Amino acid sequence: MIDWLNQSITFAGIATTVLEILGFVTGAICVYLNTRQNVLGWFFGIINAVLYVIVFWQVKLYADMSLQGYYFFTSIYGWWMWLYGGKSHDGISVSNTPSKLYGIFAIIFFAGTLLWGFLLGRFTNASFTYVDSALTIASLIAQWMMVRKYLENWIVWIVADACYTVMYFYKDLYLTAILYAVFLALAVLGYIQWKRDMKKLTSANF
Fold first, then answer.
1. Model confidence at 38: pLDDT above 60
2. What is the DSSP letter of 148?
3. pTM, entire model
4. Integer Cα distance of 199 and 205 in angstroms
């Protein structure tokens, strides 16, 4: 099964594998549905996480591989929160990130990057140890913010996706790099759409 998924093929002039194509499709669907606040996005997020565990393990991006496990479980949590979270248990709405969280996020980002980068460099043959670790920690934060429907999650994703696009091109994961370029565009769309939805909700409450 894995051999078939790893079969090298050319897609739109790009050398890739069936596995990477499936990751591309499920990832794009996941993020698009998230921009629309559609809970089915979390379902595709679960599938995408499983696929990319294999992809990143094969190219020795271990921080990204471990990130997929986090995506798997937060996708389940996000699915529940968007449907049943909130005080009335009927789902949560888009809101701004509480200012008190920014300091916590900064500490998590710098401490997590240094620790994870050190461990990867010391005990594995991982590529781009500190860069990969920084993007991993940023993604952890952004994913949690998305689960809580904090508007600014999209800003974090915009920065992270731009950096990921460059890194994956360098690692010859061309289709994945294009996917993250698509994620970048969708993150911009998500920010615009969620901000519009938040304004509508605020106006409706007055």
1. yes
2. T
3. 0.86
4. 10
For the chain, give the number of residues: 206
Nearest CA to 108 out of 75, 133, 127, 129 is that of: 133
Predicted confidence (pLDDT) per residue in 150-202, tens digit: 999 999 999 999 999 999 888 888 877 888 899 999 999 999 999 999 998 77
- DSSP line for 17-53: EHHHHHHHHHHHHHHHHHHTT-THHHHHHHHHHHHHH
Q: What span, in angstroms and rounded, lies between the C-alpha atoms of 106 and 113?
A: 11
pLDDT tens digits, one per residue of 64-86:
787 788 899 999 999 999 999 98
What are the tokens at 21? 């194509």
Single out the residue of 17, 15, 74 nearest to residue 46, CA to CA: 74
What confidence score (pLDDT) does residue 114 get? 95
Radius of gyration of the chain (CA): 17
Using CA atoms, how far apart are residues 28 and 115, in angstroms rounded to an integer?
31
Burial class (CB in 10 A: 0-12, 13-18, 19+), 103: exposed
- Report yes or no: 62 and 120 within 8 Å, Cβ to Cβ: yes
How far apart are the C-alpha atoms of 184 and 9, rounded to whole Å? Answer: 25
Of residues 17, 2, 4, 113, the one with CA closest to residue 67: 113
- Using CA atoms, how far residue 197 sits from 117, 194, 200, in Å, is 38, 5, 5
